[in-house]
Amino acid sequence: MGSDKLSSLLLTTCKNAILSWTILFVQTVLTLINFMNGRYTWGILCAFTAGIILLPALFLKNLSVMPPWYLLILVALPMLINATAYHIFFNSVPYYVSVATIALLVAAEVNWFTSVKMDHRFAIVFVFITTLAISGLWHLIQWILDINIGTSFILDGRSQETLNTEVMYEFMYATVVGIVAGFIFGWYLKYKEKSIQSDIFLPSINKQETSEYISSRPPAPIRKLLKISPKKQELATRIMQACLLIMMFAGIYLKDTHIVLNGIIALGITFLPNIITHKYYISLDPSLTLWITLAVFLDALGTFAFYDTISRWDNLTHALSASVIAAAGYVVLRAIDIYTDELYIPHKFMFVFIILFVLAAGVIWEILEFITDEMVAKFEMNAFLTQHGINDTMQDLFFDLLGAIIVAAWGTAYLSDISYRLARRIEVFSASKNKK
User: pTM higher than 0.90 for the full model?
Assistant: First the structure.
């Protein structure tokens, strides 16, 4: 199979095969029970998990090749308990352990059986990001169903603040589990590396880069959409920076810490493209700088009661901010993809990863807002980040998702050139470091 550390996630021993097939049988029964009882969401989840467990044996045409049984217990036990005794767990931590383990198996199987190429380090990052993203997406879907068809998965009649607090604790559980699972799985893969079984052979899959990422000169959607020249784009950026500076001084004059901090942080972010250009010699399109500046400018402008007086202002700023985060995630991951031979992320998987990445970032942001609110209430400080109940939180995540989808859809064409420049800088930096 090779020296890939992910290979330790497949075993061929008789004991492991018997136990793993037993767990698979239980998963199949749970799938049927959930569907028969009208619990379609859990039925689909159990069926998906059963497919993940079965895939190696089917793909390799060897019934003894299965994932380790002890990992499968982490996957199946919460689902078994959920189907038989709903209240045995004090919190949802076991479910997130199951999600993290599924994410690890998915990462490994995607690496083995598709054109995706990843090492164990990226797989661990994928586990963390996926655990957070699934938590956010799970609650978002439930909230959408509650709003549109009248279910009560989340909106069960309690106050917005109470429900939001409950969901925030769910997000924090997912974050802690994602971090701990990442460390434990990383240790496991390192510990098991020496025991990788060489009698498991995977068919060779072409993982060479295709033309789907290759384009001559990337289009400039923002420039084409607005039909303004690069000079005018730079002028618009400078005007917004000047406004942020004025806002910062206005906050100092009014002795409003909230306004001052927003102004300083936003102004600092707008100069990041210039710092990247001058320090790392990676030239950025003026439209990209305008895009970043516009996102932070509108967010900072909301300090002046825009969030309260304009109903969709928060939605707009979240979509723009999410698009910037998605773009940054794409550029960095694509640059690493170009630079190293240990990683190859095809376009379709990149689309999925960007969405997971932004959702995970959105979950972390909502946690920060929640913690800030709690500190404000406890220490009677001025609010810097605020939440306004469960509807506000879920709308934020929805528009985060929307911004991520927009970037994932056209980011390949527009941002790939920047990724190549970054990859070249990484190569130069690595070469100079090796010489030393």
Answer: no
